[in-house]
Design a protein that fits this description.
Helix content is 38%, strand content 14%. By secondary structure, the protein is of the alpha+beta class. The protein has two domains: 3-90 and 317-344, Phosphorylase Kinase, domain 1 (2-Layer Sandwich); 93-299, Transferase(Phosphotransferase) domain 1 (Transferase(Phosphotransferase), domain 1), CATH 1.10.510. Bound molecules: adenosine-5'-diphosphate.
């Protein structure tokens, strides 16, 4: 642990790790607040990972305002100029562990789903796609309060997806929650890709198991095609020109219709999963539409939305040098620090 960071935080036990960072429970020595300290080691060593952490910091800072998005409290560039630390609001667990540990209470599933839809409605209103929604990236407290986290792959929808995105090609997490258009590199990649992931998260909360699995992107696609009906051939060609023929001729070894997977689940919740899991992205409901579904409608709360595109200081398409990303993150660090000082000044 960096000496400067140890002076600011008393680090307790490790609470998680992902493909990018390690997270500890910690106490902020200045405020005695319990926080989550995420260290992303060596991230400023190459431009691609520096870009990812810069985006994560910027997006999470912008979206933190919403009650269903994790709050960023501080950011620090380590003295070695290579590691970045994020101080985040501390949460008891993540949804993956919560489901596996049997802590998710069935009667709370619609309320958790409504919180996720509300968080994503907010993100989508700024025309941003999260692109990495999965149970491990949903943080949850014992009282079933949920927060969306990990915006490292988030992207502005205004920068058109080319099907040749290096971030997604280097994707090192599980591909089980990616929408068909992401798995197949289609250019029809928009906010509805997140709606697919939310459908899978709801399905997993209900059944206790991931809905689609596979060891490769095509393996996951085969699992999808064994359960979900295919779009009409004309739509298939338009959506997935390079793979339409393969999809059309694919014959699953074993059919596992989604209705059968969900047959023991409450009808309204199962219906919402089925509506979200359409291969054709245009047929999936938006977050706003899904929040009107009878499964979640009674939990809906009003929250102001963005009325403009959320834009980062550096456009998505630009790839800067590592040192430039480091300076941008340091600037955010100083700004957050000075805002705190202002709010602590006694009048
Ligand atoms: P990565 O960017 O490497 O994927 P994540 O941000 O997803 O890392 O964090 C990895 C794990 O750490 C999460 O799945 C979760 O279990 C835990 N974690 C992350 N943020 C928090 C937090 N704010 N509070 C508590 N645990 C957290």
């Amino acid at each position: 642990m960096d000496g400067g960071i140890s002076r600011l935080y008393e680090v307790k036990e490790k609470v998680g790790s992902g493909s990018f960072g390690t997270v500890w429970k910690a106490i902020d020595r200045r405020t005695r607040q319990v926080i989550a300290l995420k260290r992303v080691a060596g991230v400023l060593r190459n431009a691609r990972s520096a870009q990812k952490i810069y985006r994560e910091v910027e997006f999470v800072k912008i979206f933190s305002k919403h009650p269903n998005i994790v709050s960023l409290l501080d950011v620090h560039v380590a003295a070695n100029s290579l590691d970045v630390y994020l101080a985040l609001e501390f949460m008891d667990s993540d949804l993956r562990k919560f489901i596996r540990g049997g802590q998710l209470r069935r009667e709370y599933i619609p309320a958790v789903m409504a919180q996720l839809l509300q968080g994503m409605q907010f993100v989508h209103s700024g025309n941003i796609i999260h692109r990495d929604l999965k149970p491990a990236n949903i943080l949850i407290n014992r009282n079933h309060q949920a927060r969306i986290s990990d915006f490292g792959l988030a992207r502005s929808i205004t920068s058109e997806y080319t099907g040749n995105d290096p971030v997604l090609t280097q994707y090192c997490g599980t591909t089980w929650y990616l929408a068909p258009e992401a798995l197949l590199g289609s250019k029809w990649y928009t906010v509805s890709a997140d709606m697919w992931s939310l459908g899978l998260i709801l399905g997993e909360m209900l059944t206790g198991k991931p809905i689609f699995t596979g060891d490769s992107q095509m393996g996951v696609m085969e699992s999808i095609l064994s359960s979900v009906s295919c779009p009409a051939p004309r739509d298939l060609v338009r959506l997935f020109p390079r793979h339409a023929q393969w999809i059309h001729s694919f014959r699953p070894g074993q059919l596992r219709p989604l209705k059968r997977i969900l047959q023991r689940q409450p009808q309204e919740a199962a219906d919402l999963v089925i509506r979200l899991l359409h291969i054709n992205p245009n047929e999936r409901p938006t977050a706003d539409q899904a929040l009107r579904h009878p499964c979640v409608a009674s939990y809906r709360k009003r929250w102001p939305m963005f009325d403009r595109d959320v834009k980062l200081r550096v456009p998505d398409t630009a790839l800067l040098q590592c040192g430039e990303y480091r300076d941008l993150i340091r600037r955010i660090e100083n700004k957050m620090e000075s805002m705190k000082r202002v709010s602590h000044v006694k009048i």
